[in-house]
Amino acid sequence: MTEHGAVRVRAQGEVDEEAVTRLLVKLRAACGRLGLPAEGALTVVRAAAHHVRRPWTATARLLVDGTVVVVHAEETTARALADRLEDRVLTRAGQAAHRRTHTPPPWRTDSGT
Predict the structure, then answer these.
(1) Per-residue confidence at 111, pLDDT binned at 50, 70, 90?
(2) How far apart are CA 89 and CA 34, in angstroms?
(3) For residues 31 and 89, is the Cβ–Cβ distance under 8 A?
(4) How far, in Å, CA of 77 to CA of 48, rounded?
(5) What is the pTM of this model?
(6) CB 38 within 8 A of CB 31
(7) By three-state DSSP, how is residue 77 classified?
(8) Are the CB atoms for 89 and 29 separated by under 8 Å?
(9) Closest to 69 measured CA to CA, from 92, 38, 88
(10) Among 98, 87, 67, which Cα is nearest to 23's?
(11) Is the predicted pLDDT of residue 59 greater than 90, yes or no?
(12) How far apart are CA 64 and CA 108, in angstroms?
């Protein structure tokens, strides 16, 4: 496991440094677009078996405003994996940030009656 700023990275299988760098750039870009710091852990796995349909997988565990957000992506290439991870982080972290900044409607709160 290596440390890249506030993101810990674990690589399993034949994962090159270029793939890790691309994933980190996309992860930071997604968090930057949301105005959030990129902090957490990223696990990248490349399956050794040739019969696996999508050998590249990534799991990001991020801390977004006190909420843990887990994002998982699978793809056939490292480049496609980075793009998919960025899209999913934007969606999931954006949802988590939105839930933290907006109060729930009155019918979802316990009014004590």
Answers:
(1) low
(2) 10
(3) yes
(4) 13
(5) 0.77
(6) yes
(7) coil
(8) no
(9) 92
(10) 87
(11) yes
(12) 23
d(CA 48, CA 81): 16
Entry field: residues in the chain: 113
Structural tokens at position 29: 């870009």
- CA angle centred on 19, ends 87 and 31, rounded to 5°: 35
Region of 5 on the Ramachandran plot (φ > 0 left; ψ -120 to 50 alpha; else beta): left
**What is the pLDDT, as a whole number, of residue 65?**
72
Does residue 19 register a pLDDT over 90? Answer: yes
What distance in Å separates the CA atoms of residue 78 and residue 13, rounded to the nearest whole number? 13
**Mean pLDDT across the stretch 77-103?**
82
For 75-99, what is the mean pLDDT? 87
